[in-house]
Amino acid sequence: MASEGMPMDAAVTMSASLEGILYGFSILMFIGTIWALTYNRRMQDINRPLAVVAVLLLILSTAHMVVNIIRIEDGLVKYRDTYPGGPSAFFADVSQNTYVIKHSFYIMQTLLADGVVIYRCYVVWQSVLVIILPCVLWCSVAVTGVYAVYSCSQASSSTIFAEGLAQWVTAFFASTIATNLLSSGLLAYRIWTIERAVSIVRASKSNVMPIMRVLVDAAILYSVVLFIALVCFVCLNNGETVVVDMAMPIMSITFYMVLIRIAINRNTPSYLLTTRGTSSGTEQRNSGQYDMKPSQIHVLPRSTWQADTGLNRDLVPK
Predict the structure, then answer these.
(1) Residue 89: what pLDDT?
(2) Taking each helix axis from N to C terminus, what angle separates 302-309 and 97-125, rounded to the nearest 10 degrees?
(3) Helix/strand/coil for 4
(4) 92-117 pLDDT, tens digit each
Protein backbone atom coordinates (compact mmCIF):
# COMPACT_ATOMS: atom_id res chain seq x y z
CA MET A 1 0.00 0.00 0.00
CA ALA A 2 1.20 3.49 -0.85
CA SER A 3 1.73 5.81 2.09
CA GLU A 4 0.48 9.36 2.35
CA GLY A 5 1.64 12.55 3.98
CA MET A 6 5.23 13.78 4.09
CA PRO A 7 8.00 11.90 2.24
CA MET A 8 9.75 9.21 4.27
CA ASP A 9 13.11 10.97 4.24
CA ALA A 10 11.50 14.11 5.66
CA ALA A 11 9.56 12.07 8.24
CA VAL A 12 12.69 10.26 9.42
CA THR A 13 14.66 13.49 9.68
CA MET A 14 11.89 15.16 11.67
CA SER A 15 11.47 12.13 13.94
CA ALA A 16 15.19 12.07 14.76
CA SER A 17 15.17 15.78 15.58
CA LEU A 18 12.13 15.59 17.86
CA GLU A 19 13.35 12.38 19.47
CA GLY A 20 16.70 14.03 20.18
CA ILE A 21 15.00 16.95 21.95
CA LEU A 22 12.85 14.64 24.08
CA TYR A 23 15.81 12.35 24.72
CA GLY A 24 17.78 15.27 26.15
CA PHE A 25 14.86 16.08 28.44
CA SER A 26 14.63 12.43 29.51
CA ILE A 27 18.33 12.54 30.48
CA LEU A 28 17.57 15.39 32.88
CA MET A 29 14.59 13.46 34.24
CA PHE A 30 16.80 10.40 34.71
CA ILE A 31 19.29 12.42 36.74
CA GLY A 32 16.40 13.68 38.87
CA THR A 33 15.13 10.14 39.32
CA ILE A 34 18.50 8.83 40.49
CA TRP A 35 18.72 11.75 42.90
CA ALA A 36 15.24 10.94 44.21
CA LEU A 37 16.19 7.31 44.79
CA THR A 38 19.57 7.93 46.41
CA TYR A 39 19.41 11.32 48.18
CA ASN A 40 20.09 10.96 51.93
CA ARG A 41 19.83 7.17 51.63
CA ARG A 42 22.07 4.38 52.73
CA MET A 43 22.94 1.81 50.11
CA GLN A 44 20.65 -0.82 51.62
CA ASP A 45 17.71 1.63 51.65
CA ILE A 46 17.82 2.34 47.91
CA ASN A 47 14.95 0.81 45.94
CA ARG A 48 17.11 -1.24 43.61
CA PRO A 49 14.36 -2.67 41.35
CA LEU A 50 13.17 0.84 40.49
CA ALA A 51 16.76 1.96 39.93
CA VAL A 52 17.32 -0.98 37.58
CA VAL A 53 14.16 -0.15 35.61
CA ALA A 54 15.22 3.50 35.33
CA VAL A 55 18.65 2.49 34.01
CA LEU A 56 17.15 -0.01 31.55
CA LEU A 57 14.82 2.65 30.16
CA LEU A 58 17.79 4.97 29.68
CA ILE A 59 19.83 2.24 27.96
CA LEU A 60 17.00 1.30 25.58
CA SER A 61 16.26 4.94 24.75
CA THR A 62 19.95 5.62 24.11
CA ALA A 63 20.32 2.52 21.93
CA HIS A 64 17.25 3.49 19.91
CA MET A 65 18.60 7.00 19.43
CA VAL A 66 22.00 5.71 18.27
CA VAL A 67 20.48 3.25 15.80
CA ASN A 68 18.20 5.98 14.46
CA ILE A 69 21.21 8.23 13.80
CA ILE A 70 23.03 5.40 12.03
CA ARG A 71 19.92 4.73 9.93
CA ILE A 72 19.73 8.38 8.86
CA GLU A 73 23.41 8.40 7.97
CA ASP A 74 22.93 5.25 5.86
CA GLY A 75 19.89 6.60 4.01
CA LEU A 76 21.01 10.17 3.42
CA VAL A 77 24.75 9.65 2.93
CA LYS A 78 25.95 6.07 2.51
CA TYR A 79 23.26 4.72 0.16
CA ARG A 80 21.86 8.00 -1.13
CA ASP A 81 22.94 7.46 -4.74
CA THR A 82 23.11 3.66 -4.83
CA TYR A 83 19.83 2.49 -3.28
CA PRO A 84 17.02 2.07 -5.88
CA GLY A 85 14.48 4.82 -5.37
CA GLY A 86 16.73 7.02 -3.28
CA PRO A 87 16.49 7.88 0.44
CA SER A 88 12.67 7.73 0.56
CA ALA A 89 12.67 4.14 -0.67
CA PHE A 90 15.47 3.22 1.72
CA PHE A 91 13.63 4.53 4.77
CA ALA A 92 10.40 2.86 3.68
CA ASP A 93 12.10 -0.55 3.45
CA VAL A 94 11.26 -2.43 6.68
CA SER A 95 13.76 -5.20 5.91
CA GLN A 96 16.73 -2.95 6.65
CA ASN A 97 18.73 -4.10 9.67
CA THR A 98 18.62 -0.70 11.32
CA TYR A 99 14.82 -0.62 11.03
CA VAL A 100 14.46 -4.07 12.62
CA ILE A 101 16.92 -3.31 15.43
CA LYS A 102 15.45 0.03 16.44
CA HIS A 103 11.91 -1.36 16.51
CA SER A 104 13.15 -4.29 18.59
CA PHE A 105 14.30 -1.74 21.17
CA TYR A 106 10.89 -0.08 20.95
CA ILE A 107 9.10 -3.38 21.64
CA MET A 108 11.36 -4.15 24.62
CA GLN A 109 10.84 -0.72 26.16
CA THR A 110 7.07 -0.96 25.67
CA LEU A 111 6.98 -4.33 27.42
CA LEU A 112 9.12 -2.99 30.26
CA ALA A 113 7.03 0.14 30.78
CA ASP A 114 3.71 -1.72 30.63
CA GLY A 115 5.07 -4.40 32.96
CA VAL A 116 6.00 -1.80 35.57
CA VAL A 117 2.47 -0.35 35.51
CA ILE A 118 0.95 -3.82 35.92
CA TYR A 119 3.30 -4.57 38.83
CA ARG A 120 2.31 -1.35 40.58
CA CYS A 121 -1.32 -2.27 40.07
CA TYR A 122 -0.73 -5.68 41.65
CA VAL A 123 1.08 -4.29 44.70
CA VAL A 124 -1.64 -1.73 45.36
CA TRP A 125 -4.54 -4.18 45.00
CA GLN A 126 -2.72 -7.17 46.52
CA SER A 127 -4.78 -9.44 44.27
CA VAL A 128 -3.78 -11.56 41.31
CA LEU A 129 -7.34 -11.57 39.98
CA VAL A 130 -7.23 -7.82 39.34
CA ILE A 131 -4.24 -8.05 37.01
CA ILE A 132 -5.37 -11.10 35.00
CA LEU A 133 -6.79 -9.02 32.15
CA PRO A 134 -3.82 -6.57 32.09
CA CYS A 135 -1.46 -9.55 31.97
CA VAL A 136 -3.40 -11.07 29.06
CA LEU A 137 -3.17 -7.75 27.24
CA TRP A 138 0.54 -7.56 28.04
CA CYS A 139 1.03 -10.99 26.49
CA SER A 140 -0.88 -9.74 23.45
CA VAL A 141 1.53 -6.79 23.22
CA ALA A 142 4.48 -9.20 23.37
CA VAL A 143 3.11 -11.60 20.75
CA THR A 144 2.01 -8.97 18.24
CA GLY A 145 5.14 -6.87 18.70
CA VAL A 146 7.58 -9.76 18.38
CA TYR A 147 5.78 -11.19 15.35
CA ALA A 148 5.67 -7.78 13.66
CA VAL A 149 9.42 -7.32 14.12
CA TYR A 150 10.05 -10.88 12.94
CA SER A 151 7.93 -10.26 9.83
CA CYS A 152 9.97 -7.17 9.08
CA SER A 153 13.22 -9.13 9.33
CA GLN A 154 11.91 -11.77 6.90
CA ALA A 155 10.45 -9.35 4.36
CA SER A 156 12.31 -9.01 1.11
CA SER A 157 11.41 -5.38 0.52
CA SER A 158 8.13 -3.86 1.65
CA THR A 159 6.65 -0.98 3.64
CA ILE A 160 5.19 -1.01 7.14
CA PHE A 161 1.75 -0.61 5.56
CA ALA A 162 1.89 -3.95 3.73
CA GLU A 163 -1.34 -5.88 4.31
CA GLY A 164 0.23 -8.91 6.02
CA LEU A 165 2.21 -6.72 8.41
CA ALA A 166 -0.30 -3.95 9.02
CA GLN A 167 -2.76 -6.12 10.95
CA TRP A 168 -0.10 -7.11 13.48
CA VAL A 169 1.07 -3.55 13.95
CA THR A 170 -2.52 -2.37 14.45
CA ALA A 171 -3.10 -5.13 17.03
CA PHE A 172 0.11 -4.12 18.81
CA PHE A 173 -0.90 -0.48 19.14
CA ALA A 174 -4.43 -1.39 20.29
CA SER A 175 -3.09 -3.86 22.87
CA THR A 176 -0.56 -1.51 24.42
CA ILE A 177 -3.12 1.33 24.61
CA ALA A 178 -5.60 -0.98 26.35
CA THR A 179 -2.93 -2.31 28.73
CA ASN A 180 -1.79 1.16 29.73
CA LEU A 181 -5.27 2.61 30.21
CA LEU A 182 -6.64 -0.38 32.12
CA SER A 183 -3.67 -0.78 34.47
CA SER A 184 -3.34 2.95 35.14
CA GLY A 185 -7.09 3.25 35.67
CA LEU A 186 -7.15 0.40 38.20
CA LEU A 187 -4.14 1.87 39.99
CA ALA A 188 -5.60 5.37 40.20
CA TYR A 189 -9.02 4.06 41.32
CA ARG A 190 -7.49 2.00 44.13
CA ILE A 191 -5.44 4.94 45.41
CA TRP A 192 -8.49 7.20 45.24
CA THR A 193 -10.70 4.80 47.22
CA ILE A 194 -8.03 4.34 49.90
CA GLU A 195 -7.46 8.07 50.12
CA ARG A 196 -11.19 8.75 50.44
CA ALA A 197 -11.47 6.25 53.30
CA VAL A 198 -8.43 7.60 55.13
CA SER A 199 -9.43 11.27 54.72
CA ILE A 200 -12.28 10.75 57.19
CA VAL A 201 -9.84 10.34 60.11
CA ARG A 202 -7.08 12.61 58.86
CA ALA A 203 -7.16 16.38 59.18
CA SER A 204 -4.03 17.26 57.21
CA LYS A 205 -3.91 17.75 53.49
CA SER A 206 -3.59 14.58 51.42
CA ASN A 207 -0.08 13.63 50.35
CA VAL A 208 -1.23 10.86 48.02
CA MET A 209 -3.60 12.72 45.69
CA PRO A 210 -0.79 14.66 43.97
CA ILE A 211 0.83 11.33 43.12
CA MET A 212 -2.44 10.03 41.72
CA ARG A 213 -2.76 13.11 39.53
CA VAL A 214 0.75 12.56 38.16
CA LEU A 215 -0.09 8.91 37.47
CA VAL A 216 -3.19 9.95 35.54
CA ASP A 217 -1.29 12.66 33.64
CA ALA A 218 1.45 10.19 32.69
CA ALA A 219 -1.09 7.60 31.51
CA ILE A 220 -2.98 10.19 29.44
CA LEU A 221 0.21 11.56 27.87
CA TYR A 222 1.46 8.14 26.82
CA SER A 223 -1.96 6.97 25.65
CA VAL A 224 -2.49 10.08 23.53
CA VAL A 225 0.87 9.53 21.81
CA LEU A 226 -0.01 5.90 21.08
CA PHE A 227 -3.47 6.83 19.85
CA ILE A 228 -2.01 9.40 17.45
CA ALA A 229 0.43 6.77 16.17
CA LEU A 230 -2.44 4.31 15.66
CA VAL A 231 -4.54 6.87 13.77
CA CYS A 232 -1.60 7.80 11.52
CA PHE A 233 -0.92 4.13 10.84
CA VAL A 234 -4.53 3.31 10.00
CA CYS A 235 -4.63 6.33 7.68
CA LEU A 236 -1.41 5.15 5.97
CA ASN A 237 0.32 8.37 6.99
CA ASN A 238 4.09 8.57 7.35
CA GLY A 239 3.58 10.68 10.46
CA GLU A 240 3.42 7.33 12.26
CA THR A 241 7.22 7.18 11.99
CA VAL A 242 7.59 10.52 13.76
CA VAL A 243 5.20 9.65 16.59
CA VAL A 244 6.63 6.17 17.24
CA ASP A 245 10.18 7.51 17.52
CA MET A 246 8.97 10.21 19.90
CA ALA A 247 7.26 7.57 22.03
CA MET A 248 10.61 6.10 23.10
CA PRO A 249 11.77 9.04 25.27
CA ILE A 250 8.17 9.81 26.28
CA MET A 251 7.90 6.35 27.89
CA SER A 252 10.99 7.13 29.96
CA ILE A 253 9.76 10.61 30.85
CA THR A 254 6.38 9.34 32.11
CA PHE A 255 8.14 6.79 34.33
CA TYR A 256 10.63 9.32 35.69
CA MET A 257 8.02 12.01 36.40
CA VAL A 258 6.10 9.68 38.73
CA LEU A 259 9.21 8.85 40.78
CA ILE A 260 10.28 12.49 41.00
CA ARG A 261 6.78 13.51 42.13
CA ILE A 262 6.92 10.84 44.86
CA ALA A 263 10.30 12.14 46.03
CA ILE A 264 9.02 15.72 46.17
CA ASN A 265 5.89 14.59 47.99
CA ARG A 266 7.94 12.62 50.51
CA ASN A 267 9.86 15.74 51.53
CA THR A 268 6.85 18.06 51.88
CA PRO A 269 6.08 19.49 55.33
CA SER A 270 2.64 17.82 55.40
CA TYR A 271 4.21 14.40 55.02
CA LEU A 272 6.83 15.08 57.68
CA LEU A 273 4.16 16.49 60.01
CA THR A 274 2.07 13.38 59.56
CA THR A 275 4.90 10.97 60.37
CA ARG A 276 6.25 13.07 63.23
CA GLY A 277 2.80 13.58 64.70
CA THR A 278 2.24 9.85 64.75
CA SER A 279 5.62 9.26 66.42
CA SER A 280 4.95 11.92 69.08
CA GLY A 281 1.63 10.35 69.98
CA THR A 282 3.30 6.97 70.36
CA GLU A 283 6.03 8.36 72.61
CA GLN A 284 3.45 10.03 74.88
CA ARG A 285 1.51 6.80 75.30
CA ASN A 286 4.67 4.85 76.11
CA SER A 287 5.84 7.35 78.72
CA GLY A 288 2.46 7.69 80.35
CA GLN A 289 2.46 11.48 79.90
CA TYR A 290 -0.47 13.04 78.13
CA ASP A 291 -0.85 16.62 77.03
CA MET A 292 -4.22 18.02 78.08
CA LYS A 293 -4.30 20.30 75.03
CA PRO A 294 -6.38 19.12 72.09
CA SER A 295 -4.21 17.34 69.55
CA GLN A 296 -4.66 15.47 66.31
CA ILE A 297 -2.99 12.20 65.49
CA HIS A 298 -2.97 11.29 61.83
CA VAL A 299 -3.39 7.56 61.49
CA LEU A 300 -2.02 6.01 58.32
CA PRO A 301 -3.45 2.51 57.95
CA ARG A 302 -1.42 -0.29 56.44
CA SER A 303 -3.51 -0.22 53.28
CA THR A 304 -2.34 3.33 52.57
CA TRP A 305 1.27 2.29 53.01
CA GLN A 306 0.68 -0.57 50.61
CA ALA A 307 -0.72 1.91 48.10
CA ASP A 308 2.38 4.03 48.49
CA THR A 309 4.72 1.08 48.18
CA GLY A 310 3.01 0.16 44.96
CA LEU A 311 4.51 3.34 43.63
CA ASN A 312 7.70 3.45 45.64
CA ARG A 313 8.68 1.82 48.90
CA ASP A 314 10.49 5.01 49.82
CA LEU A 315 7.16 6.52 50.89
CA VAL A 316 6.95 4.27 53.94
CA PRO A 317 8.12 6.32 56.96
CA LYS A 318 11.37 5.00 58.39
Answers:
(1) 87
(2) 180
(3) strand
(4) 888 889 999 999 999 999 999 999 88
